[in-house]
Amino acid sequence: MLLTLDLNDPRPLHEQIAEAVRRAIALGDVRPGDRLPPARDLAAALGVNTNTALRALRELRDEGVLEFRRGRGVSVLRAPEPREVLRDRVTALLEEAERYGYRVDEVIEIVRELAEAKEGRR
């Protein structure tokens, strides 16, 4: 499982990690029943504190996406709802757009333009 963080993203690192894990599961890179690396290994790979990685994993456990088992590690319990994944991505988009000075209605217009262009290609 290859995860990356955006150090320019103003969201807390644990939120970015949780979103990246959700996305990996939603894309099928990690499936229900698969084990995740220990928080220590995940933190080392991402260059963050172990507690930061653990906080992200606990958040996903609380959502019912992951399961912690003593002696067996962390495993994927279920795929997140597609709407959850999409909401996370839209939230990140709106936050980034705000940093560039775009209003929500302007972002919606950009999405409409892209959707219309995509429909025109079909």
Automatic annotation (TrEMBL):
What lineage is this protein's organism placed in? Bacteria, Bacillati, Actinomycetota, Actinomycetes, Streptosporangiales
Endpoints of the signal sequence: none
Q: Which UniProt keywords apply?
A: DNA-binding, Transcription, Transcription regulation
One MF annotation (Gene Ontology) recorded for this entry: DNA binding
- What InterPro entries does this protein's entry cite? Tscrpt_reg_HTH_GntR, WH-like_DNA-bd_sf, WH_DNA-bd_sf
Name all HTH gntR-type domain ranges.
11-79
Q: Name one Pfam family in it.
A: GntR
Q: Which residues cross the membrane?
A: none
Protein's recorded name: GntR family transcriptional regulator
